[in-house]
Amino acid sequence: MLKWSVILIIVAIIAGVFGFGGIASGAAEIAKILFYIFIVLFVLSLIFGRSKL
Question: How many domains does the chain have?
């Protein structure tokens, strides 16, 4: 999931450089959402992964 966030950020940067503002903002928003989901899942895996010990 973090891989997709990085890909979408790169797409947003490239689209912004070429002047496609709508595509750039859409890709950046999707990348932000995926990044936040990744962070939440990472924290949950840290919390619940340790409880099995």
Answer: 1
Q: What is the dihedral of CA 3, 10, 28, 13, to 10 degrees?
A: 170
Range of the domain at 20: 2-50
pLDDT score recorded for residue 36: 92
Cα–Cα dist 53/32, whole Å: 33
* CA–CA separation, 9 and 42 (whole Å): 20
Query: Is pTM beyond 0.70 here?
Result: no
The alpha carbons of the chain give a radius of gyration, in whole angstroms, of 15
Dump pLDDT digits (tens) for 1-31. Answer: 678 878 888 888 888 888 888 888 888 888 8
Longest CA span, the chain? 52
